[in-house]
Amino acid sequence: xxxxxxAALSKNGPLTPYTFTRRELRPNDIALEIKFAGxxxxxxxxxxxxxxxxxxxxxxxxxxxxxxxxVGSAVTKFAVGDLAGVGVFIDSCRDCANCANxxxxxxxxxxxxxxxxxxxxxxxxxxxxxxxxxxVDENYAVRIPRNLDLAAVAPLLCAGITLYSPLKxxxxxxxxxxxxxxxxxxxxxxVKFAHALGAEVTVLSHSPVKxxxxxxxxxxxxxxxxxxxxxxxxxxxxxxxxxxxSAEHDINEYLSLLATDGTLVVIGLPGVPFALxxxxxxxxxxxxxxxxxxxxxxxxxxxxxxxEKEIVSEIELISADYVNKAYERTVKSDVRFRFVIDIATx
Length: 346
Ligand code: NAP
Ligand code: ZN
Ligand code: ZN
Fold this sequence. Notes:
Layout: E1 2-8, E2 15-21, E3 29-38, H1 41-47, E4 64-71, E5 83-86, E6 89-91, H2 97-100, E7 112-113, E8 133-137, E9 142-143, H3 150-153, H4 159-169, E10 177-181, H5 185-196, E11 200-205, H6 211-217, E12 221-224, H7 228-232, E13 238-243, H8 251-255, E14 258-266, H9 278-282, E15 287-290, H10 296-309, E16 315-318, H11 323-331, E17 338-342
Parallel strand pairs: 10-11, 10-13, 11-12, 13-14, 14-15, 16-17
Antiparallel strand pairs: 1-2, 3-4, 3-8, 3-17, 4-5, 5-9, 6-7
Helix pairs in contact: 4-5, 4-10
């Protein structure tokens, strides 16, 4: 299959038009005509090689929504014309305990990333969703509810599930005090979900201008993290803090905001280690944890929940020629709240 996309040809390189091929359909594959792709901060980290090990040319994109355009001979879950999505991974070993338990994202043998990795054959590079087509095993695609806007659904495939999964795991609901650190693509989905689940939601942000947006998204409180007086008012307050900050920050300052037995879940991946003081955890039996996206079944559950509650991402829909500018603006925390590429413009 011939595909038109956008690729970075080298580290830090601008995204430029790029043509490549994808495999012909195997019996369990579907072909997806991609309509929209979200720009996740992880795309930017990888194009800049901030996590190491980047493969070029790189076609980023793991927040993918589109229409099924063909199905392999053994496909049972999808038909041509269905709406489908692809997230951060497109395969896993299907054999380990985590795969068996619907935790494919934690596959003990490594999940296959949607781009910037290799297929399970170990040699075929994977290319992502800033492109007009994808070929994927039907077991690694999810159904998109028809009542939702397809462009605004795309970010749910990474930003959405990445916040939904820890909120469910740490049993968010009425009576829980939840803080979301960083009101970007991930964070704004965290506010929507935590609010929908009935929690008391606080946004911890270094951007004072985002306060009214935060409240409109469902936040009960807004704290400017660069103002020490405001931070003092929320010491020992939260049962759960979800840290989506993409840049280096002092984690001890935020751990001090946890109530006794509270948990701070690291979600953002700045690529530099934290300087953690043991005292930050000891004084209040606090926990620090991590969470990465979600499994296929949970991603489907999240999309069905979104269909029921009519939850989607807040997006700025852009054309392909704006992607490099969108990267710059995302790094400056200047996006409300996710850029989504209209793939028809590639
Ligand atoms: P994003 O849209 O750029 O949002 C990040 C937010 O972090 C910004 O909006 C900003 O929020 C805050 N921030 C940025 N720079 C800051 C600074 N210098 N000091 C303090 N706060 C700062 O990024 P995203 O797409 O949501 O991704 C967030 C992070 O999660 C990235 O590192 C990404 O790689 C990672 N990620 C992890 C997973 C996972 O599975 N764990 C999945 C996807 C992405 P305010 O303006 O409100 O302060
Ligand atoms: Zn992502
Ligand atoms: Zn596995």
